[in-house]
């Protein structure tokens, strides 16, 4: 069955970097893009963009451009979300989700940014 | 960006009774290919979202038939024919017709 398994929660200081992984199984990884969705504490869902797993081309929503980086390692069917310079307001749960229809989701990764 | 407006934001329900929630978009969600990319997701407390409905009215595998989606253009509805305990949580609509994808703010279903 389709599964997306994300890396575990992390506590980071402001200015640090974080890289969240999303490992896919149960399907051909390069047949579906990977989306990233943010959910701030107590808030709703916000689509951050997606990465084409065939070409590696990332597409970022305007408010996230320059703040995040999507990448892939297709040899291990894994997508990554990197936030190079964390701020307190980046504290959130980050989800990966499969394909244009977001039909399967990872379990979420809580990133807490605090000094 | 397309704004998705859900109502109500809070929906007190009684087990065994029907429930209905609305999602309205600021632009028509009919795509140039003729499809309407409107999805519904359910998020239980402490869990990741799960897709229930895609393209307005198509139920995902394993989704009980008490859930139904309808609508067209800019107005969409999710109905639960008889609410069960596992149905509590937040329901989000999301449009995938226009870039960027956008979510509604969610309707929280809770027991009266």
Keyword list:
A: mainly beta, 6-stranded mixed beta sheet, 4-stranded antiparallel beta sheet, 10 strands, globular, B: 112 residues, mainly beta, 7-stranded mixed beta sheet
- Proportion of strand residues of chain B: over 45%
Strands of chain A, total number: 10
Global mean pLDDT of chain B: 97
User: What is the helix content of chain B?
Assistant: under 10%
Spatial gap, N to C terminus of chain B: 35 Å
State the shape of chain A.
globular
Strand content of chain A: over 45%
| Largest sheet report of chain B | 7 strands, mixed
Show unreliable segments of chain A.
none
Largest sheet of chain A, in brief, is:
6 strands, mixed
How many separate helices of chain B? 0
Order of helices and strands of chain A: EEEEEEEEEE
Helix-and-strand structural type of chain B: mainly beta
**Order of SSEs of chain B:** EEEEEEEEEEE
Distance between the termini of chain A: 40 Å
Radius of gyration of chain A: 13 Å
Structure write-up:
The complex is a heterodimer of chains A (115) and B (112). By secondary structure, chain A is mainly beta. Chain A has strands at residues 3-6, 10-12, 18-25, 34-39, 46-51, 58-60, 69-73, 78-83, 92-98, 109-113. In chain A, the strands form 2 sheets. In chain A, strands 2-10-9-4-5-6 form a 6-stranded mixed β-sheet, with no helix packed on it. Chain A has a 4-stranded antiparallel β-sheet with strand order 1-3-8-7, with no helix packed on it. In chain A, a hairpin with a 6-residue loop joins strand 4 (34-39) and strand 5. With 112 residues, chain B is mainly β. Chain B is built from no helices and 11 strands. Chain B has strands spanning 4-7, 10-13, 19-25, 38-43, 50-54, 58-59, 67-72, 75-80, 89-95, 102-103, 107-111. In chain B, the strands form 2 sheets. In chain B, strands 2, 4, 5, 6, 9, 10 and 11 form a 7-stranded mixed β-sheet that branches. The chains are: A mainly beta (115), B mainly beta (112).
